[in-house]
Structure formats: C-alpha cells, structure tokens
Amino acid sequence: MSLATETRPLTRREWLLSDRPQSRLQARLGRAYMTWRRFSANRLAVVGLLILLGLCFVAAFADLLAPHSPVIGNLAGARLLSPGSEGYLLGTDDQGRDILSRLIHGSRLTLAVVVLVAVIAAPVGLIVGAVAGYAGGWIDAILMRITDIFLAFPKLVLALAFVAALGPGIENAVIAIAITSWPPYARIARAETLTLRNSDYIAAVRLMGASPARIVFRHVIPMCMSSLIVRVTLDMAGIILTAAGLGFLGLGAQPPLPEWGAMIASGRRFILDQWWVATMPGIAILIVSLGFNLLGDGLRDALDPRESGQ
Amino acid sequence: MTVAVSVENLSVVYDDFRALDAASVQVEAGESFGLVGESGSGKSTLLRAIAGLAPVSEGTIRVQGRELRGARRDKAFYRAVQMVFQDPYGSLHPRQTIDRQLMEPLAIHGISDGERRILKALDEVGLGSGFRFRYPHQLSGGQRQRVAVARALILEPSILLLDEPTSALDASVQAEVLNLLEQVRRDRKLTFVMVSHDLGVVTHMCDRLAVMQEGRVVERLTSADLVAGRIAEDYTRNLMVASKGFRRVAETA
C-alpha cells in the first residue's frame, strides 16, 4: 500500500496508455485511445471526420440553420437568382427556392440513405461471409453462389430494376442500393474468415466447447470488423453517388424533396445560363464523398490489425 | 492403472496425404507420455485428432474409456481434455484481453464463480492479477504461453494435450514453462500427452514415449531406456544422435 501512496497520481494520458490496466474499462479505453492516436496522426483523416461531423450537425439542426423553407419558394420575386443575392447566399432555383436551405435539408436525406444502407448491407454481408467462410462445404458453396449472382448484376441497373418494380421513392432507392451493395462485404468477410478459421486461437475456442454460432459471432466477426468498417466507409461515397444518380434519373427521391441528385437533375435544364442551380448540390455531394473517402483512408491506417499488435 | 487415452490404428488423411497411418498409443492415467519425431512425422496430427481438430478416416480414439466418433465432441470431453498450442503468438485471440479469454470457457460451460477462478488460474501460472486486463500484444512469449496454460487449466481438465509447448520460446523461458507444467501436473495429478521434437525435453518431462516416423509409431520406450541407450530402431538412434550433436555445438559456441 505504501508503494501506491508514494507514486504520484497518473495523468489521464498515462492512465490510458498504461501497460497494466486495472479494469475492463481501462483496457478498453486504452485501446480506443491508441486507435484514436493512430487515426489523428493522419491530418486528412481528421479533416474527413470533421466534414462528416459537420454533415451530422447540419442534418440535426437543419430547421434552425436553413434561412428559408426548402420546399416553398418565392416564384414571383426570387426565381433563379445568382449566388450572393440579397438573402440567398447560394442563389435560388427555378421555383424561387433557396438553394442553401435545400442543401441543408437535403443533408438529412443523404445521411439517411448512407446510414440505412450501411445498417442493412454491412451486417448482411458480414454474416453471410463469416458463416460461409467458417462453415465451409456446401453452406459455403450455396451462400457464395448467391453472392456471385448478386455480384454479377450491374449495380445501378439492378437498383433501377428494383425501383421500377417497387415504385420510385427514397425508401425504395435505399433498399435497392442495399441489395446491390452487400455482396462485396460478404466476400471480404469470407476472405478474412478463411484466414482465421484454422488459426490456433479459434481452435482453442473450439476446444473449450464453443458452439459454431458462438465462435462466428464472438470470435470471428470481431476480427472481420475493421476491414469491413474501412470498406463500408470507402463505399459510402459510391452509395451517395448511386443515390444521387437514382435521384437524377427521377427514380430516387421525388419532388419536392430536396435530394441532392434530384436537385442536380432539375438544374440541368439551366446549366448553361444558371450554372449554380446544378453546381451547388454537385459541390455538396463532392465534399461529403471526399469526407467519407478521407475518413476511410484514416480508418484503414488506424484499424489495421497487423499494425495494432505493436 | 486405468487408461486415460487410447488410440488404435488411427489414420488421418488430408486429400492424398496420409498424415497418420494406423498409429496406436496408450496413455495411462496420471502419466506423462511423449510423442517424438521429426517435422511431418504426424505427432501433432495425432494430438489434434484426439482433440477433434483433424479429420479421422480410420481407427478409434477412446478417452477415459469413452469412444469418440468423428470430430464431434461433447462438453464433458472439453472439461476433461484441454490443449496447449505450440505458438503462443497464434493461440491467443489478438483482440481480447486475458480476462476475456479466460472468461470464455467459463461462460461456455456456465460456471459461475468466474472471478475467483480467473484470479486463481493466473496465480497458479505465476502471472498475478496485474496481467488480467492486458491484451496479448502487451505480453512476452513466455507470459503468453503461461496464459495459454491458465486457459487450458481453468476448466480443471484431467488430461492436457501439449503440442510442442516450448518450441517457440527461447531457452531460458523454455525451462520456466516446463517447470510450470511439471508443477501443475504434480499439483493436479494431470495426464500429459506431450509432443516434442526435442528429446531432451521429452526425457525430462515424460515417463514413456513413442517415436513416430511418417505417420507411424516406430518404437515405444521409456525415458530410462532412452537415456541408457536401449534403443531398438535406427530411426530413434538417429534422432538421438541428431539431438545430442546439436547440443554439443550449442555448448561450444
């Protein structure tokens, strides 16, 4: 006890980086802190994270931030005003609606699409891949052939077919994108699982009498998570673009929803004379996609299991 | 004496390769049995087949009188038989704390006094509770192997399968881990089945041993026979010469 009183109290940083954590919580926080240090060493990744936090902030407080209504325009007095006009920072569109307000409200749709697709596609791919990889044999064959079938469809075309069958709308666009984006995750999860399934630590868990389900969910899937998170983050940009593409084709969000892709589509008619109508949502898509890509790159460095050992 | 592990005419075939060819061994309860042979002689395969980690194509395995079929094992088996793997860097889950890895077998078997057992197991292998919440990468090779031993012992098995438990460690740590294994065997009256290519380790640790070559058991003898040079097979003699020759070089160097 005298030893404990003599040593000076640890700083928070030392407590986090301690070699000999005293509790479950400290071990977990220490690990998270190490990951954060690796992540934050990459400046661009932090920029990406800030962009996405900004997106979340804007989406959360859209009602307060937007200076005008996103759907009701001023048809009489404010049609197609150029950026910087009085009260309309980014100009207005052909129906006199403030583009900035529409972008701010559109961030909700973008975020919803991204989150819903990630929530639907990533777990499906992860479970299919991990189960196929761990079980092997005919289960593997069946699951992976199904995956192959979905992989063989061109993404946008399958999404188009789905939206055509189910009717246009943002929900159907989300389902369509989710259905076409899980197969790569299944492939990744299966590849990771194949490298793990014969490792000694999985054999050790099996020798404890763990059921296959327990092994897959508690021991295999956590090892697949980091590469999957990286891949999903990098795919987010593509998902936003696909959603925007569907919106552009009129198969995603329907008017008057301020979806960015649909906004570009409606601005297309004036692209030569009123360039800002199509350009502003384009820039928004670009920035958010870039944010996801930068974040994904940073996560790849931070979560790489091969480096986290040291 | 009762038979703890009995393996009869066991064959293991991977695709076209016969890793184990009608091998038979009998391990009595409470003894320490060695399996020696060069790399690829099938000694590890025999151990993994007992544990249910290798595809058995022919033959029978009996543990404590009960016959085991295929690769299926029931919970009682896992409580009776545990294994320590060769590579301590590969046998611990890299993303789980020592605490979680020791908790896992207790959770699987629904054992409630986990807290006490974990502290006791860590204490028994000489690690103390300071190591409890570390990740494997925060431990040295010897410490990792101690954790692996603690994990194997936490279900209180009566038979321990040891797959070259010290070959991945450097010499001074090897001795520590071997002494630890000796200690727990005495304390708990365990049966050991130990695979090694190091005849010195086997003669030190084991009462009897079987020499394996190309998937077959070529000779069975006691450690005393081996030390006294009462060897029938040329292969065993070569193995012994090779291991001694190595030692002499190591001493002069």
Summarize the structure.
The complex is a heterodimer of chains A (310) and B (253). In chain A, 74% of the residues lie in helices and 0% in strands.
- Tell me the fraction of residues in β-strands of chain B, as a range: 25-35%
Multimeric state: heterodimer
CATH topology of chain B: Rossmann fold
Radius of gyration of chain B: 18 Å
Q: How many strand elements of chain B?
A: 10
N-end to C-end Cα span of chain A: 32 Å
- Average predicted confidence as pLDDT of chain A: 85
What is the radius of gyration of chain A computed over CA atoms, rounded to a whole number of angstroms? 24 Å
The CATH H-level superfamily of chain B is P-loop containing nucleotide triphosphate hydrolases
CATH class designation of chain B: Alpha Beta
Helix content bin of chain B: 25-40%
SSE pattern of chain A, N- to C-terminal:
HHHHHHHHHHHHHH
Number of domains of chain A: 1
- Any idea what the shape of chain A is? flat
Name a few traits of the molecule:
heterodimer; A: 310 residues; mainly alpha; MetI-like fold; 0% strand; B: 253 residues; alpha/beta; Rossmann fold; six-stranded mixed beta sheet; four-stranded antiparallel beta sheet; 9 helices; 10 strands; globular
Secondary-structure blueprint:
The complex is a heterodimer of chains A (310) and B (253).
Chain A: H1 2-6, H2 12-17, H3 24-40, H4 43-60, H5 62-65, H6 99-135, H7 137-152, H8 155-166, H9 170-197, H10 200-207, H11 212-248, H12 260-267, H13 276-303, H14 305-308
Chain B: E1 3-14, E2 17-28, E3 32-36, H1 43-51, E4 56-63, E5 66-68, H2 75-80, E6 81-84, H3 98-108, H4 114-124, H5 141-153, E7 159-163, H6 171-188, E8 191-196, H7 199-205, E9 208-213, E10 216-222, H8 223-228, H9 234-252
Parallel strand pairs in B: 3-8, 3-9, 6-7, 7-8
Antiparallel strand pairs in B: 1-2, 1-4, 4-5, 9-10
Helix pairs in contact in B: 4-5, 5-6
